[in-house]
Structures are given as C-alpha cells and as structure tokens.
Amino acid sequence: MLLRDSFAGSSCTGFVINVAGEEEHTEETLCSLRFGEKLSSVKTSAVASQATDVAARRAQVSAELEAERVKLAELVRAGQGDHINPAAPPSEQASLRNNIATMTKREVEVRALKARLVEAKAAHGADSAAVAAVASRLEEAMLSHSNIRDIVLRQKTIPGLWVGATAVYSRTEAQVASLCAQMDVLG
Predict the structure, then answer these.
(1) Number of other residues whose CB lies within 10 A of the CB of residue 37
(2) What H or E segment, with its residue span, contains residue 187?
(3) Keywords for this entry (predicted)?
(4) Where are the alpha helices (DSSP H) in 41-166?
(5) d(CA 138, CA 116)
(6) For residues 9 and 46, is the Cβ–Cβ distance under 8 A?
(7) Fewest 10 Å CB contacts: which of 36, 86, 96, 110?
(8) What tens digit of pLDDT does each residue of 58-85 get?
C-alpha cells in the first residue's frame, strides 16, 4: 500500500544484480542470478496516476473493519478463538486465569513506565536521578512481565488446559489487525 503511488503513473523501476567471482561467494552468486532471472519476467505497464479519495477509502476500510470485527466476535462465541478448556481441572483453569490477568497488568505497567521514562528524559535530561529511578522501575517491571509471560506460556503447553485458535480465527484476527493498520495510515 505504501509503494502503490511509487509504481503508478510513468514510474520506471530498475534492479541491479551484483555477483562475485570468488569461489566462496558461489552460492550467493547463484541465488542472485536466479533472483535476477525471476525479475526479468516481471513486466509493468504505465498507468496514469489516479487521485485517491482518502475519505472514500477510509469509509470503505472502516466498513470492512466493522464486518471483520463482527465475524471475529461470532468466531469467539463459537469457541474458535484461544481459550481455556472448560474440561480442564478447575484449579489449573483458575491458576492460568490469574496468571493471564497478572501478565496483562504487567504489560500495562511496562507501557506506563516506558511513557514515564520518555517524559522524564524530556523534562530532566538523560542523566538525572529521576530518570534513573524510572529506568530502574521499568527494568524491574520488564523482568516481572517476562517471568509471568514465561509461566503463562508454560501453562498453555499443559495438555488439555489451553485450546488454540482455529486457522479461520487466526486469519480473521490478522485481517482485523491489517485493517486497523490501514485505518491508522488513512488517519
């Protein structure tokens, strides 16, 4: 999407394939030559650049995003997303839920401390005691988050406790993320 305008209109794209004659670079040279051969079959035709209506594109992406979010919610209701297996022992379910909640709290804490560190550096300079204190707290929070994340990841490997998302759910989730990124670009 970012390069669309670069290849529109009367643009011309060229590639240079570099090769080396030394024996130690033979594998790289062959790979480069194969790549160049594939590129030689690529043909483009000049098309007059067309103006893009950002408001219309934003509305289109917004509608697609809403439809994908509805689809994602339906998949969650159908049990196709990541979830704790209801047939797992209740104590293991509770432990995993608690650890996921703790991990989420740690993620929020790390994000907040990163923002505070940036603000402290802007206000006090990089070498002040306030910056050092926030940096120390951030380091501790990151270690705590890393520890609880590792625990959650290990718990998810316990047979019968965690049910992973289906391929359909994962694709839909990726589509939602892609559309959100497009909305960010469009403003």
Answers:
(1) 10
(2) none
(3) Motor protein
(4) 54-77, 90-124, 129-156
(5) 9
(6) yes
(7) 86
(8) 999 999 999 999 999 999 999 999 999 9
Report the distance separating Cα 3 and Cα 53, nearest Å: 17
pTM above 0.85, yes or no: no
Mind listing the pLDDT tens digit for each residue in 116-129? Answer: 999 988 888 777 88
Please tell me the distance from the alpha carbon of residue 6 to that of residue 163, in angstroms, as a whole number: 44
Phi, psi angle pair for 65, to nearest 5°: -65, -45
Whether residue 117 contacts residue 134, with contact meaning beta carbons closer than 8 Å, is answered with yes
- How far apart (Å, rounded) are the C-alpha atoms in residues 44 and 8? 10
- Reference 87, options 154, 161, 155; nearest CA is 161
In the prediction, which pLDDT does 21 show?
82
Distances (CA, A) of 34 to 15, 25, 38: 13, 14, 6
Measuring CA to CA, how many Å separate 40 from each of 16, 52, 141?
11, 30, 52
The torsion defined by the Cα of 128, 131, 137 and 140, in degrees rounded to 10, comes to -90
Tell me whether residue 158 is exposed, middle or buried, using C-beta atoms within 10 angstroms of its C-beta: 0 to 12, 13 to 18, 19 or more: middle
* Predicted pLDDT of residue 10: 61
Q: How far, in Å, CA of 126 to CA of 63, rounded?
A: 45
Residue 169 has which token pair? 């759910």
